[in-house]
Amino acid sequence: MDIDASTAENDTAAPKLEWRVMLPVFLSVSLYAASAAAALPILPFYLKEMGGTPLVFGIVIATEALTQFVAGPVVGQLSDRVGRKKILLATQVTAFTSFLMLALANAVFPALLARVLFGFTGGTFTAAAAYAADHSSPANRRQAIGILNAAVGLGGIAGAGLSGYLSGISLTVPIYAAMGFSATSFVVTAALIKGHVASHGFDETVKSRAASDKASIRSIISSPLIRVLVIVLLCYFFAYGMYGSQIANYLQATFTSEGNSFGPRELGYIMAADGAINILVQLFLLQWLGRYFTERRLILLICAIVAVGYITVAFAMTLPVLVFALLCVSVGDALARPTFISALSVHAPRERQGIVLGTAQSLLAATETVSPVIAGFLIAQALYGVWTGAIIAFVALAAAVAWTRLPLTDPEAEGQANE
User: Fold this and answer.
1) Distance between CA atoms of 375 and 390, rounded to whole angstroms?
2) Which of 8, 175, 294, 367 is the most exposed place for a label (fewest CB within 10 A)?
3) What's the pLDDT tens digit per position in 308-356?
4) Burial class (CB in 10 A: 0-12, 13-18, 19+), 18
5) Closest by alpha carbon to 74, among 233, 201, 216?
6) What are phi and psi of 167, to 5 degrees?
7) How many CA atoms lie within 13 A of 21 on its CB side?
8) Where are the transmembrane segments (predicted)?
9) Residue 260, helix vs strand vs coil
10) Does domain 15-201+209-408 have CATH number 1.20.1250.20?
11) Domain spans of the chain, in order of start
């Protein structure tokens, strides 16, 4: 069997990627991302007004990530059993409640509780990604995941941009905007997404076996290739967690432009620009690179791009240099998320997409329970060089593992060629 015939046969066996199916979840994810992006830019400054230090902010972010670590596999497995729509609705109600708690908080501890609750909504993207996997084939899986990442980018533009503007009124106003986005996301999900059990298309025996299987991280990463991908993923996102959790505090302490220090408005605009870059990467760059790059080469390219960005941030003294650095990191991260998620999804059984992606989300959250605290300590002690060096070291480790352990060609491509 030739490659084209094999590919066509594989595509026929799986649902086609259709916009009428993907558009509702695209809108739902966009609105959820807008709510998250509206609240996040003001959070370090909101906590600072309550007496919080960079270390305190790191602890808050780490505690939120710990919640995601616990909830990720559970939410993913529930989406396999009860359907994606019910999980999306539940996480959106949780997000709205957490924003309300955050808006009413007048001390660090209530704000911490609000973010812990928000951590449970990390399953939103897991359920949405599993929905995308349900309606895509291995051949277009990266495109489907990329569409959701574009949705995150679009939401980031709207939420962060609005937050940057509204923060000039009050740091609380963007949180109420986040509540509005969250409520709208609930309505869109309830009205437009059709409820279904994720493992549709399989007979009842398969569904029953999938539901009763005992999920564990060990069973998920039993494949040597997936083990390597997970190690690379953890190293990469540990570095990104150290960067993303403290970049606002770092720039506030070290960077000034035209006599103005870095604040919530600037962070909001940076996040909006990051969202725009995300969309452009998903719509144009990712699909083009996917034609010419294997997973291994693409991961190495991503590591190289973000490494340039991280190094440049450390030496940025002018606005153009800082913009270049942030552009590199944004482009690299926009490429990284769909690449890693797609790679894991392609090698997972179709009836287990939710639990596999949920476990991956949980592993990412595990890195985020540690990296913000370490980064917060380093920034609070003004150890900026150590902070930058640690970030670059983890990216280099991710690249080294990918270079030495990932195959030169994609295994699924080899399988098609041999048929």
Assistant:
1) 9
2) 8
3) 999 999 888 888 888 899 899 989 988 888 888 777 777 666 656 566 6
4) exposed
5) 216
6) -65, -20
7) 14
8) 21-43, 55-75, 87-106, 112-133, 145-167, 173-193, 224-243, 267-286, 298-317, 384-403
9) strand
10) yes
11) 15-201+209-408
